[in-house]
Amino acid sequence: MHSYEKSKSLYDRAKAVIPGGVNSPVRAFKSVGREPIFIESAKDSTLTDVDGNTYIDFIGSWGPMILGHTPPFMQEDFNKVIKRGISYGVPSPLEVEMAEKLVDAYKGLELVRMVNSGTEATMSAIRVARGYTGRTKILKFEGCYHGHSDALLVKSGSGTLTYGVPTSLGVPESTVKDTLVGTYNDVQELESIFKAEGDLLSCVILEPVAGNMGVVPASEEFIKALRTLCSKYGVVLIFDEVITGFRLAYGGASEVYGVEPDMVCFGKIIGGGLPVGAYGGKREIMSIVSPLGGVYQAGTLSGNPLAMHCGIKMLDHLKANPQIYIELEDKAKYLEKEMKMVIEKHQFPVTFVRYRSMPCLFFKTGALSSYEDVKSCDIEAYAAFFRSMLEEGILLPPAQFEGLFLSTAHTQWHLDQYVEKAEAALIKLYS
Ligand code: PMP
């Protein structure tokens, strides 16, 4: 049994001065029925908490740690950059380099603007789509999370699913009255929405592989139908690639599905873990952004040199080593094969799903292609599983509705540990 004394004491202090003791709700570990652990350091795929407990990390800072924590090449020139100043408030060369790399990676991406988070990216992209089309309605899908800006905080995923608060207090009805919510992967419904509202829609935003209701990939049919309908009705198609961008492939979901959106949003991954986001798209659309056009969007720290430096390092490394994507997928495939064998052997009522390098263990059997399907997962069972795994030194996302975040720093041994401990935890749960 680990000791969590120091984490406990930090949590008590934190609760006195931070709402719920955390700076992002899922971190409270509330839905998995325990108190949070506080991390002191991270290296490769290992986290060490303030009590000295170590964990194999399957959160990976929710996505950006594709190469594990603090790889040496990332640390190399950091001190040089910091010595040149932390923020200037006027342009710096690194911003140009970063934008060039993004434009180079994504087909159809011609102009891109840096922001500081995924939330800012999606919020700004929607403003641009509305400004460009002169229309107000937006379409999102149930179970997709696009950050916490008001208009998008409707039937979103992640923490809001777990806590059963699909729409936040403090979001006025007037703000979300133009947000339509569709069913993920339902082509027929999509066609009828467009028939009824297509001419009023400014944009459709989606996670091409939903990573905030577990891992639920869009079917090719769904993505292609979206592309066709958006083009037909003059609606801006926005891919939220905050999780999938540079993870599924260097060109993200757009490359994997072979479908070009009109706009794309990025987040944490392109900052290598520093607070970064970006949104961009076709020149014609993005030319409406201030100072070129009338859509205002700004940011004091946008394009911050330290963040750009880390982002560029990350992108350069991914581009120079394309085998990383094969390696990541092989790891996910291995987990899938081993876990499917374990599940089959014991007939556990769970399903292991994988899309490319995004795996997820759902605590249910049967269909898993929409929010309606995943919401019947046994959340209590996941919570017990999470707690058993944590005791065994394996840190999973503290919520059923998140996938495992794999990195190149996960070795065969780490993966085998996951399988071995997961089998024991599931036996404990279901025997
Ligand atoms: N979009 C998606 C798909 C996300 O997963 C997230 C956060 N995980 C966001 C947007 C919001 O990003 P951030 O937390 O950086 O604001």
From TrEMBL:
Pathway: Porphyrin-containing compound metabolism; protoporphyrin-IX biosynthesis; 5-aminolevulinate from L-glutamyl-tRNA(Glu): step 2/2. It is found in: Cytoplasm. Keywords: Cytoplasm, Isomerase, Porphyrin biosynthesis, Pyridoxal phosphate. CDD domains: OAT_like. One of its GO terms (molecular function) is glutamate-1-semialdehyde 2,1-aminomutase activity. Its cofactor is pyridoxal 5'-phosphate. Homodimer. The keyword NADP does not apply. This is Glutamate-1-semialdehyde 2,1-aminomutase. Its EC number is 5.4.3.8. InterPro entries: 4pyrrol_synth_GluAld_NH2Trfase, Aminotrans_3, Aminotrans_3_PPA_site, PyrdxlP-dep_Trfase, PyrdxlP-dep_Trfase_major, PyrdxlP-dep_Trfase_small. It comes from Fusibacter bizertensis. NCBIfam families: hemL, PRK00062.1. HAMAP family: HemL_aminotrans_3. It catalyses: (S)-4-amino-5-oxopentanoate = 5-aminolevulinate. Belongs to the class-III pyridoxal-phosphate-dependent aminotransferase family. HemL subfamily. The modification N6-(pyridoxal phosphate)lysine is found at K268. The keyword Nucleotide-binding does not apply.
